[in-house]
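Hi V.,

You were right to ask for the full record rather than a summary. Here it is.
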Amino acid sequence: MNARTESANAVNPPEMVGRVLVIDDDPIVAGMLAVTLGGAGHVVVERNSGEEALEYLSTGESLPDVIVIDIEMPGIDGYETCRRLKAIEATQGIPVLFLSGHDSLDDRLKAYDAGGDDFMSKPFDVQEVLRKAGVAVRHHRARHKANTDNREAFGAAMTALTSLGETGAALKFSSQALSCRTHLALAKLIIEAMGSYGLDCHVQLRRAGLSITQTVRGAASPLEESVIDKVREMGRIFSFKNRMVVNYDTVSLLIVDMPVDDADYCGRIRDHAAMIAEAAVHAVANIDARSDAMDRARELQEMNRITREAVEDLRRSYRDLQVSARIELESMVTGIEGMYHSLGLSDGQELAVSDTVRGATDRVVSLLAAGIQLDERFDGIVARLSQSAAVTIEEVTEAAPDVELW
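Predicted structure:
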């Protein structure tokens, strides 16, 4: 039977006006209901049996806000029709108002057991029909809105929790990255972090004309490395097909299996990858600074060693000079005194010359003896240099730090 729709001035507020399905095998009653409800602004659809109503509702198009159903009908009765409606997910939430000429307690209990929401007796009262239909429409829409809001809120909460876990993995990486001692360890940590999102990531780290390129399988092949070399000039973030590149001056990430069928997840991955890449930039700077500092420390240690050896050589040379000077002075005094007989000097003259020479010799020896203080200073310098050279520079390993990513 074709749908009847009749518009009139609505007596119900807008939230109580909706789409009503009338199921009754009596065309007169169905027509009167259509006129009554249509006059109040409702859109009315009529079906004359439970089978027709179920077939109509099975399409899932334009589901009603309320169903008014007769009990006694050919084929399946109103009770069975209601039970079947309540067994279908798409229609189980639609309120069902029974309309019957039987108004006993048993009839009402059967309607309740079948899943009915209300009961009206024939002949129906116009105001009762309008009131109950309007209230049923309002309640159905309120429940539908509440269910929709709950689903949306639940979905938003789940998305927030998922995003929180994903962000936690990125933050965990940020804290662990600064403990990496080498570029290789950092590259492995980046690959592990992106792997926690179920992604295959290639990483290139660069410094001073040198680069290291790693994949989940280890060192990148020449072809894989050439791909990153090409895409590193394509801007900060660049996507093509199921691949995405994040570029910084010293870091490039190439994700080769982006979940393009999930736009929301792709958006979150974009944010997390950018966060990880930015943290990696600081980690690279930290590794470079530490490496430079260690290189300078090694250079200083080598200079320390050379200086210490030079000071020790100088001290030995000075001590040798002291000894040689003493020997030469004694030899000179002995030689001069041995020349007295040949010079024909008197005893007084010999004594005067000897006193002069030995006095000068004693003064020179005294000056050399004062050099002991300088020797002590040499000892102090050598001791400090030896202590400084004894400092051990920690060797850098290539292993990535242990890290548990969410």
